[in-house]
Amino acid sequence: MVELGAEPGRITAATGPAVCGRCYEVPAPLRAEVAERVPAAYAETSWGTPALDVPEGVAAQLAAAGVTALTRSPVCTLESADHYSYRREQRTGRLASYVWLGSEQ
Description:
Layout lengths: L11 E4 L12 H10 L4 E3 L5 E3 L1 H11 L4 E4 L13 H4 L16
Parallel strand pairs: 1-4
Antiparallel strand pairs: 2-3
Keywords: Copper, Hydrolase, Metal-binding, Transferase, Zinc
Family: Belongs to the purine nucleoside phosphorylase YfiH/LACC1 family.
InterPro entries: Cu_polyphenol_OxRdtase, Cu_polyphenol_OxRdtase_sf, Cytotoxic_necrot_fac-like_cat
């Protein structure tokens, strides 16, 4: 978006429900590899095993890019029975995302 002329300070970002760092268990080598690039993603599960906090990592990357307007969903998809989670249900589902460029008038 920046390459197309967007100013990071004018970008509004919103992240939807996602598995949280307390629940997203990963192998220790994967956590180390991700955290090397995005330290904010380093996490530990509520039961003490290596984890990744993807929402926190995304927020940190947006902040580093200069995006100051961020709305984050507080919902953990693994913890919420109202949201789809492959990790919980072990079957596929459907997700959607969208991005758009608007102009001020």
